[in-house]
Design brief:
Layout (H helix, E strand, L loop, with lengths): L1 H7 L7 E7 L2 E6 L1 H7 L2 E8 L3 H12 L9 E2 L1 H6 L9 H7 L4 E8 H6 L11 E5 L10 E3 L10 H4 L4 H8 L3 H5 L13 E5 L1 E2 L4 E6 L2 H13 L4 E3 L2 E4 L2 E2 H4 E3 L12
Parallel strand pairs: 10-14
Antiparallel strand pairs: 1-2, 3-5, 3-6, 4-9, 5-8, 6-10, 7-8, 11-12, 12-13
Length: about 260
């Protein structure tokens, strides 16, 4: 892989280094996220569908710290191989198309955050998990402008854009893409970015819900499961006050990924 990087990348632009995105698997990667931020990328999100009360234990499991055995978000393939038979939004199609080895996220750019509602995001769910953009630096990350089930078996995969070009395209308004402003209201919101194997808990930057009652349900679950700690009289997750970590909003904003 190092020879490939040396042959095909401008190393000064995208310096490579060795990291462990998946425990026990050191890999070489280049810093795509830095260049994507320069082009307007903010972060990644994924929705959890269903009743907040029913899904709160799942949020708690995802947030369990790595030091305490937490695994974060796992791909369908990884879950099934470990005997965790919990289907995602489209696990059948993901396996059929070859995308089940990755975690599916949506890329949020400044254009999307400024002009779209959370409800515009397909499969936005009742809870949104926000991931650090650095998750894209994992090897074999790829993406599409629209929902393609993470396909690796069709022409879409072979004609896909680089992550930097994808970011640039998603920064273009619907009017620029289609000639008539707002003709395609949801342009860009159905994009997908696939992260191989899983995303570890430290990459989760925030949770977004729509009401104060929903936030309290999740806080109660996290407190019950021992995920929260009292720090200076404030319930916190790691070093972040829980009220800063769990947001209430109907839109995304750049600040949601920047609480630290």
């Amino acid at each position: 892989m190092e020879e490939i990087f040396e042959s095909h990348l401008e190393i000064d632009l995208l310096p490579k280094k060795i990291v462990e995105f998946t425990t026990g698997k050191p890999t070489t990667f280049v810093n795509l996220s830095e260049e994507m931020r320069k082009k307007g990328a903010i972060g990644l999100m994924a929705g959890i569908d269903g009743s907040v009360k029913v899904k709160a234990p799942i949020v708690s499991m995802l947030l369990k710290p790595k030091k305490n055995g937490g695994k974060g978000v796992l791909s369908s393939q990884t879950r099934f191989m470990r005997g965790i038979i919990a289907a995602g939004q489209s696990s059948y199609s993901d396996h059929k198309e070859g995308g089940a080895s990755g975690v599916f996220t949506r890329l949020i750019t400044k254009e999307i955050a400024e002009n779209k509602e959370i409800n515009d995001m397909p499969f936005h769910g009742s809870i949104q998990i926000l991931f650090d953009l650095d998750a894209v630096n994992a090897p074999t990350t790829y993406g599409f402008e629209s929902d393609c089930f993470g396909t690796r078996s069709s022409g879409n995969y072979f004609s896909r854009l680089s992550m930097i070009e994808l970011t640039k395209n998603l920064q273009r308004s619907a009017g620029e893409m289609f000639g008539k402003p707002l003709e395609v209201k949801k342009y860009g919101t159905a994009n997908e970015v696939i992260i191989r194997d899983g995303i570890e808990p430290q990459m989760i930057k925030a949770i977004v819900v729509s009401t104060k009652a929903d936030r309290e349900i999740i806080i109660d679950q996290l407190r019950s499961d021992g995920i929260l700690e009292q720090k200076s009289g404030t319930w916190s997750i790691e070093d972040t006050p829980i009220d800063d970590f769990i947001k209430i909003n109907t839109k995304f904003s750049e600040e949601m990924w920047q609480y630290d």
